[in-house]
C-alpha cells in the first residue's frame, strides 16, 4: 500500500560525546522515508529544500525507492538547518542553532500521483501545516499518523487540539504526553489524550522502550540494550517510519499487527543510533533487520510453568 510522508528534509550538524559532524542530511521526513523504504514500495515524500541542497542527497533518497516528485526545491532559498550538542547521558541536548530558511514558508503541495495514498505520516511540523495536508487530499487515507512535540504544545496548542480528532495514531514521548495531558501517570495520560481524538497512542520512552495504547489495550516494547549509542538524532522519526512502513506493507491496522509494527519500528531506531545521522539506516539488509527483530522478541520471550 502507498505511504505519503510530509515533513522536513534538512541539514543537521551534530556533536555527541563520540564526536561531531559538519552538515549532514537530516530532517524528520528523511528518517521516516528511509526507514519505511525497507517495507513499502510506494514511498512518497512531500517536503521543501533550498537551492543549497545537493543532488546526490536527493539521489540517495531515490536510490532507496523514495518518490521525490513532491520535494520542492526553492533555488533562491536555503535548506532548514539544525545544530545540536548532546550531553554525556545522550538523553538531553542543547540546540546550538536553528535556521528555518525555506521551511519557514513551507506550503505542502500534494502531487496528483499521491492523492490516493492509503497511509499518511505527518512528520513533526507546525500543526497548521499538518492540517493543511489533510485538507488537500482528495480522500482520507486508511490510516493517518501524527508526530508532534512540546514546542507546538507551547506555541500552537489550539491548532494541535483542532488536529487531534482528525488523526488515527499519535506518537509523542513521555515528557510530551505528560505536558499534553497534565497527568503524571502515563496510563491516565494516554486515556486523556485518546479522549482528545486519536484512537491509538504511542508513547516513546527512548532507551526505555515504547508503549502502545488503544482503548483499554496496552502493549510495551522494550528497547534493545546496545553496547554503544553514537547519535540519537532521528531515532524517533526512524521508529515512526519503521512502524507505519510495516503497517503499509501488510495493510493490516489491527492492534495485534500494530504490536508487530512497534517491534519493527524499535528495531529500525536501534540501527539509527549506532552511527551519525542516516549513515546506518541507508544500506541495511533484510537479514540484518530480521536478526534485529528477533533480538527484540527474545528480550521478553519466556514460558510460564
Automatic annotation (TrEMBL):
InterPro entries (alphabetical): Carboh/pur_kinase_PfkB_CS (IPR002173), PfkB_dom (IPR011611), Ribokinase-like (IPR029056)
Matching SUPFAM superfamilies: Ribokinase-like
Residue ranges of every copy of the Carbohydrate kinase PfkB domain listed in the record: 20-279
GO molecular function: kinase activity
Gene3D superfamilies: 3.40.1190.20
Alphabetic keyword roster: Kinase, Transferase
One annotated Gene Ontology cellular component of this protein: cytosol
Protein name per the record: Sugar/nucleoside kinase (Ribokinase family)
Phylogenetic placement of the source organism: Bacteria, Pseudomonadati, Bacteroidota, Cytophagia, Cytophagales
Amino acid at each position: 500500500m502507498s505511504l505519503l510522508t510530509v515533513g522536513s528534509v534538512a541539514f543537521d550538524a551534530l556533536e555527541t560525546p563520540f564526536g561531531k559532524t559538519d552538515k549532514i542530511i537530516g530532517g524528520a521526513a528523511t528518517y521516516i522515508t528511509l526507514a519505511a523504504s525497507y517495507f513499502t514500495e510506494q514511498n512518497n515524500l512531500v517536503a521543501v529544500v533550498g537551492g543549497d541542497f545537493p543532488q546526490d542527497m536527493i539521489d540517495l533518497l531515490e536510490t532507496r525507492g523514495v518518490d521525490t516528485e513532491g520535494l520542492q526545491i526553492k533555488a533562491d532559498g536555503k535548506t532548514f538547518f539544525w545544530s545540536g550538542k548532546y550531553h554525556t547521558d545522550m538523553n538531553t541536548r542543547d540546540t546550538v542553532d536553528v535556521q528555518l530558511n525555506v521551511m519557514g514558508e513551507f506550503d505542502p503541495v500534494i502531487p496528483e500521483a499521491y492523492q490516493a495514498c492509503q497511509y499518511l505520516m505527518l512528520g513533526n511540523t507546525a500543526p497548521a501545516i499538518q492540517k493543511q495536508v489533510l485538507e488537500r487530499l482528495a480522500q482520507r487515507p486508511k490510516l493517518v499518523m501524527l508526530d508532534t512535540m512540546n514546542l507546538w504544545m507551547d506555541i500552537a496548542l489550539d491548532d494541535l487540539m483542532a488536529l487531534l480528532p482528525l488523526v488515527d495514531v499519535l506518537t509523542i514521548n513521555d515528557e510530551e504526553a505528560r505536558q499534553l495531558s497534565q497527568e503524571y501517570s502515563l496510563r491516565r495520560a494516554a486515556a486523556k489524550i485518546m479522549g482528545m481524538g486519536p484512537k491509538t497512542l504511542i508513547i516513546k520512552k527512548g532507551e526505555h522502550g515504547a508503549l502502545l495504547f488503544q482503548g483499554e489495550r496496552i502493549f510495551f516494547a522494550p528497547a534493545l540494550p546496545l553496547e554503544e549509542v553514537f547519535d540519537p538524532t532521528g531515532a524517533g522519526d526512524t521508529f515512526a517510519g519503521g512502524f507505519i512502513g510495516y503497517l503499509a506493507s501488510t495493510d493490516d491496522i489491527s492492534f495485534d499487527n500494530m504490536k508487530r509494527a512497534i517491534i519493527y519500528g524499535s528495531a529500525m531506531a536501534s540501527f539509527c543510533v549506532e552511527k551519525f545521522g542516516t549513515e546506518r539506516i541507508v544500506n541495511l539488509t533484510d537479514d540484518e533487520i530480521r536478526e534485529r527483530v528477533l533480538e527484540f522478541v527474545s528480550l521478553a520471550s519466556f514460558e510460564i510453568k
